[in-house]
Amino acid sequence: MRFRGVLAAGLALALAACTGEEITETAAVPAPAGPAEIRVLTVGGTRTAMEALQAQYEASSGNTLIISFNNPLLIEELMVDEEFDVIIAANNSVNVARDANMLEPGTQRKLSRTGIGLSIREGADMPDISTPDAFRETLLNADSIALTNPSNPNGSGIHTEKILGYAGIYGEVMAKATIQGLGDGKALIAEGERDLGLFNISEATAPGVVYVGPVPAVWQLYTNYDVAIIADSNVKEAAADLVAFLASAEAQANWNAGGIDLIAE
């Protein structure tokens, strides 16, 4: 397009010179901005929702999303080592980036959240966790349970330990629990080596593993995801458009389908 504009201008000058017409200088008209490529840094817990939202957003906006799904442990390192336009991560991780002056001022906002839910092997009898008493009974009756590491920053391990304490069954459950990474824990359930597991709802399924339901509301705890625009982004206008979409009612169905509640203000 730029070559065509230069060629047209040259032809106009040549024609004017041949006809003797006075050449009048006119202001250049900038070409309209084309579709943008928006680089998004996020965590694995958003994958199901974000892949559906990516397809929805790209179809409606014409922009392209390049999404990097990562272990929460790597978010802060990646913010330093690689280039992104938007970050979606647990509130504490986004706060670290904000405090390091890595975010566009005023763009950090609450976006979504996921709670803790119960998972079992596909084909196993579906347990009852519909009430606090039923939830307690299901965990007490299980022979073995997979839990995620409470030292990881994704929140599920820390939240699960607190939930077990609230339910008054921490000691009994921990005595028969296996602390695993998320993928390893679900693999043990799929293979029948563990009866059930407690994970972030957005990560509660896997091949051979099905989601039963959430922890009773009286004990539920959430991992809260914030979104923000990166200060060094070269596509801030497009990034702001993406953030507005992700926080809109239009996006809610895909968030919910991915086990995540939209809580944007």
Brief description of this entry?
With 265 residues, the chain is an alpha/beta fold. It has helices at 2-19, 47-61, 75-81, 91-99, 132-141, 156-166, 170-174, 182-190, 236-246, 252-257; strands at residues 37-43, 64-70, 86-90, 109-114, 116-121, 145-148, 177-180, 196-200, 209-214, 223-229, 261-262. β1 (37-43), α2 and β2 (64-70) form a beta-alpha-beta unit.
Helix and strand arrangement:
Elements: H1 2-19, E1 37-43, H2 47-61, E2 64-70, H3 75-81, E3 86-90, H4 91-99, E4 109-114, E5 116-121, H5 132-141, E6 145-148, H6 156-166, H7 170-174, E7 177-180, H8 182-190, E8 196-200, E9 209-214, E10 223-229, H9 236-246, H10 252-257, E11 261-262
Parallel strand pairs: 1-2, 1-3, 6-7, 6-8
Antiparallel strand pairs: 3-10, 4-10, 4-11, 5-8, 5-9
| Portion in strands | 15-25%
Please describe the biggest sheet, giving its number of strands, its sense, and whether it closes into a barrel: 6 strands, mixed
CATH class membership of the largest domain: Alpha Beta
How many β strands by DSSP?
11
Q: Return Rg in Å.
A: 25 Å
State the secondary-structure class.
alpha/beta
Q: Give me the CATH fold name of the largest domain.
A: D-Maltodextrin-Binding Protein, domain 2
CATH homologous superfamily designation of the largest domain: Periplasmic binding protein-like II
Low-confidence runs: 1-32
Shape: elongated
* Average pLDDT taken over every residue: 87
* Overall CATH architecture of the largest domain: 3-Layer(aba) Sandwich
How widely separated are the two ends? 41 Å
Give the fraction of residues assigned to helices: 25-40%
> What is the succession of H and E elements?
HEHEHEHEEHEHHEHEEEHHE
Number of H- or I-type helical stretches: 10
Strand order of the largest sheet: 2-1-3-10-4-11
List the domain count as a whole number: 2
